[in-house]
Amino acid sequence: MEDTDICAGLGGGSWVVAHLGQSLDGRIATASGKSHYVTGQENIVHLHRLRALADCVLVGAGTVAADDPALTVRHVPGRNPVRAVIDPMGRLPADRKIFTDGAARTLVLTGTADGPGERLLVTSGPDGMAPADILAALRGLGLNRIFVEGGGRTVSGFLQAGLLDRLQIAVAPMLIGSGVPAISLPVIDSLESALRPPCHIHMMGADVLFDFDLRKAS
Fold first, then answer.
1. Which of 18, 36, 50, 104 fits a 20 to 30 Å CA distance from 145?
2. Is 215 within a domain?
3. 125 vs 80, higher pLDDT
4. Is the dihedral of CA 62, 143, 147, 76 positive or negative?
5. Within-domain flag for 201
6. CA–CA dist 168, 208 (Å, integer)
7. Is the pLDDT of residue 218 over 60?
């Protein structure tokens, strides 16, 4: 399946799409946070395609701290999206690539005015920043196509809040055994309460990509 088919419907309008690359046993990184690279080259190219289609790529502070990603478009044609990082306590150091490379506008969703990047103040509650408040802040800047690239807690928060239009999970033929989990949701009592959204399955090199359409979830 061509990558352009997987990205069908993401050319315009307003959407929120999340993606995670995980091992067969549901880990996105080792216990020490190492994740380069769980999935193969085909999925990395796909990630860059999603970035190129988005107005904004959104990640949690843990992803930036552990991986120091550039979050730019390099493997496909296209422009770099605005980069946004959720850092409620303003703990990220100023030496991260997103603050130093000048490749794209960088927003920090935070509760503190001082620190690197363009500060976008968002109030935090007992459980952190509400995903709905994060989306409202980004869309207030005209950023309507949001790609939630990680990590697991950030994607899980948007999924639990019912704010994702699509969720893509690439599963690599790898067993990590322990480490950082992918999706974490509240405990359910029976499988009748499990999420079973419509899904398209694509081979992506040695990986298998599950593309869930959450707009049609029952």
1. 36
2. no
3. 80
4. negative
5. yes
6. 10
7. no
Structure tokens at 95: 């030496």
Q: How many domains does one find in the chain?
A: 1
Give percent of the chain above pLDDT 90: 87
Residue 2's pLDDT is: 65
69 touches 97 (CB < 8 A): yes
Distance CA 14, CA 86 (A): 20
Residue 111: domain span: 15-183+196-210
Tell me, yes or no, whether 4 lies in a domain.
no
Q: Residue 216 falls within a domain, yes or no?
A: no
Average pLDDT over residues 23-49: 94
Among candidate residues 28, 54, 32, 65, the one with its CA nearest the CA of residue 155: 28
Q: Which residues pair with 172 in a beta bridge?
A: 23
Looking at the chain, list the stretches that DSSP marks H as alpha helix, in order from N- to C-terminal side: 3-6, 41-53, 61-67, 97-100, 131-139, 152-160
Place of tokens 């994607």: 155
The pLDDT of residue 6 is: 87
Q: What residue type is assigned to position 33 of the chain?
A: G
The CATH number assigned to the domain holding 138 equals 3.40.430.10
Alpha-carbon distance 152 to 20, whole Å? 7
pLDDT at 125 over 90: no
Is the per-residue pLDDT at 18 higher than 90?
yes
Q: How confident is the model at residue 180 (pLDDT cuts 50, 70, 90)?
A: very high
